[in-house]
Amino acid sequence: MNNENFIRRYVIIGERRLSNYWWATIILIGAIGFLLTGISSYVGTTNNVFLSESFISNTNISFFPQGLLMCFYGSLGLLLSFYWWFLIFWNVGGGFNEFNKKEGIIRIFRWGYPGKNRKIDLSYTLKDVESIRVELKEGFDSQRTIFMTLKGKREIPLTGIGQPLTIQEIEKQASELANFLQVSLEGL
């Protein structure tokens, strides 16, 4: 028999999602625009340093208070964008869930923020698993989460935050996992 029947691994994407790349880029571009407009209003030039006058003109922007606020918002946007790019680079929240029948262990691994606790690596025995539970919260911010229930009623989320899965994908993944671990499936 091959390892496919004994080991099952689910990859958790973390911060390296397309939407995070998109928003970090948009915020960076907007912040640079705000900062350049504020700086050019301070210097006294009639148009932005890099943008042509046909696209945007800041002849009516005085440095105090509009230019100063634009510099402030641009600086905050740059900080937010850099923070977001660092999260993407570090892949915070990314990792995997590994279920190994051959060795009888479950390994949950996630990357965290830099520091001494950057690696979050949890291990449990298969005997400790009581059930797999699915929680569906519908509404504006719908949440669909798969939990692994351990002895002592401890629940560990197995799906990543901000990783929207359809109801069919959640049901399929939860039922496959419950069948693989030979435990009951709750919440469906």
From TrEMBL:
It is a multi-pass membrane protein. Keywords: Chloroplast, Membrane, Photosynthesis, Plastid, Thylakoid, Transmembrane, Transmembrane helix. Belongs to the Ycf4 family. GO terms for cellular component: chloroplast thylakoid membrane; photosystem I. The chain crosses the membrane at residues 21-43, 63-92. It is found in: Plastid thylakoid membrane; Plastid, Chloroplast thylakoid membrane. It comes from Pseudopediastrum integrum. Seems to be required for the assembly of the photosystem I complex. This is Photosystem I assembly protein Ycf4. It comes from the Eukaryota. It holds the Pfam family Ycf4. One of its GO terms (biological process) is photosynthesis.
